[in-house]
Amino acid sequence: MSPTIILVRHAQALHNDYTIPDPELSVLGRAQCNSLKENLVPRITGPNPELEVGLIIVSPMRRTIETALLAFGDLGIPMEAHAGWQENSIQPCDTGSPVAALRSEFPQVNFDLVDPVYPDKTSPAGKKYFNSKQAIMARGQEVLKDLKRRKENAIIVVSHSGFLRAGVTGRWYMNADYRVFDFVDDSEEKEGELVKIKERDWTVKEGGLGWSFEEAVELGDGLSDEEPALN
């Protein structure tokens, strides 16, 4: 049976200035992590958890990693980084740091499976991470297919609003808020068929924390149809 997926947007970070590379969380962001922890952890711990989480996946960026560690780092759940969950744009604030630096900074996280091209998303080698509608929607399907094959009962993913909204779910996520989804069926998709997920009723309006916009958007909304110029 495919896992339930808990999709979390990172807490507020210091990237109102888009020129700051791979920014860390703000003071408010750290407080938001406490709210996330207080709300979600009781649902995934204890003798009869509502959601039995066996894995936490993070975008390999400081704000997502810090959010995961502050909210869930003391639960003893394995945590691994995955480049497929990174943010869309090529602004410095949305471009990651070298994996070697992140390994040193965050030893609690397994970086072994991060795509070797990371953080490149502007050269031919990084084409799958281009900031284009085609690339982002394809990446959204790829990460969903990867999750669908997992054997854990439930998986937390800490990612970014732009990618989660336009590439994966068509839903809005405010900082540190989350939504819970199940795969519509467990069968393997036929060629060209999209992986479908359905949100659970208790997060479908304004998210688990009640901080997010209720309205849905179409996948690909706001994304450019043009392929970016290569470096």
Automatic annotation (TrEMBL):
Top-rank lineage group of the source organism: Eukaryota
GO cellular component: cytoplasm
UniProt-listed Pfam families: His_Phos_1
Molecular function per GO: phosphatase activity
Protein name, UniProt field: Histidine phosphatase superfamily
Organism: Triangularia verruculosa
